[in-house]
Structures are given as C-alpha cells and as structure tokens.
Amino acid sequence: MKKINFLSNYKKRKIIIFLISLFIFISITLLVLQTVDYILRIPFEKEWALGGVFKSGITEAEKLKTIEKQLHSQNLLKFYSILMSILLALLMISFISLIVGQIKLYANKSNSNIELKISIFALSTALLFGFVFLSMQPIDVTRTIYSEELKFNITDILERISYTKGFVAYALILVSFILNLSAKKKFGFITNDVIINKEFKDTKFIEEEINAILNK
Predict the structure, then answer these.
(1) Within a domain: 46
(2) By the 8 A CB rule, do 147 and 93 touch?
(3) What would the pLDDT profile of 75-91 be if each residue is shown by its tens digit?
(4) Domain span at residue 35?
(5) Which of 5, 16, 98, 177 could form a disulfide with 183 if both were Cys (CB 3.0 to 4.6 A apart)?
(6) TM segments (predicted)?
(7) Rounded CA separation 1/162 (Å)
C-alpha cells in the first residue's frame, strides 16, 4: 500500500492553521503577563499614593479615603477580571478547536471546516471584547503633596500602567482572524489530494472477474 504524505492534503491550510495556533498561543501568553503586571500594579499604586504628604493630624483612615478614588487599577479590577476571563476563554476555545482541526487534517479524517468556523466565531468575539478591554485602561494616578509653607496641595502624577502587551496581543488576534478567514475561504479546496487522486483498480476488470466466477 502506497504511503500517504500527510502534508500533500490541504498543505496551505495546514501551514496557515499552524501559524494561527502559534499567534493565539502568543496572545494568550501576553495577556497572562499583562494580568500579572496589572495585579502587581495595584499595591504599588496604593503605596505610591500613600507616600504623598498630607495635612498634619490626618488619620490613616482619612488618608485611605482621600486616595481611594485615585487607585484606578484597584477600582477597575473587577471589570478587568471579567473582561480578561472572557477574552482568555474565547482564545482557548479557538486554540483548542484549531488543534483538533489540525489533528483531523493530518489524519486525513476531515478538512477541519467545522473547527475553523468555531475559531472564526471565537476570534471575532474576542476582537470585540479586546477592543472594550483596551478602551478601559486605568488613567494616570495622582497623589497629594501638601505644602505647610504655601498652605495648598501640590499634585504629583504617576503614569498609567503600560498596556503594550495587551495591544500586541490584540494585533495578533486580528491577524489570526484574517488568516482564519483565508484558511476557510481561499485554502479550503483540495489540491493534489492523495486520497482522491490515487489510482484505484479498474472496476471494469473486477466486474469481468466476478462474472467469470458466477458463470462457472
């Protein structure tokens, strides 16, 4: 029996799906790292804000109440957690569906159209939630430095947390979505398919052999 080369069926689709899977994996990694940065940022912002100079005689409770509104990362934590959880779940669905699709492709069991549709839906939804996620970044943090001499507050500013990893992840999700559409629309046709194009025995010859046996 002639050995089938698993790369000869849907070759372009297999390569593109592999690239999409790689990009999604990198996106998931970047978003996890972004979350770690975010969590570490919360106590840092609080400590930095409490490092301001307040009026003499103010209690710790009053200090905390004063800076509470300035702790934007902490105030947005619940919203951030919900968005990030949905985003990571959608990317995992896409990643797993593509892995399953690749296994089916290499095993010559399916053209992975169903898995690609699932991935396209998951990525399109992830783009929507990713846009909301990037739009809801914490703003700059400020703290009060009270001047006893001048008798008024001086504002010190701490720049917002960097969302560079989030933006790179979003760009990769967008590229993955476009490649996914290409894999589904442009590279979904079989070219030089081994299974379809392999030579089968002449059915007419088989039919003649059967008739000869029956006529004996």
Answers:
(1) yes
(2) no
(3) 888 999 999 999 999 99
(4) 6-190+197-215
(5) 16
(6) 15-36, 79-100, 120-139, 167-183
(7) 59
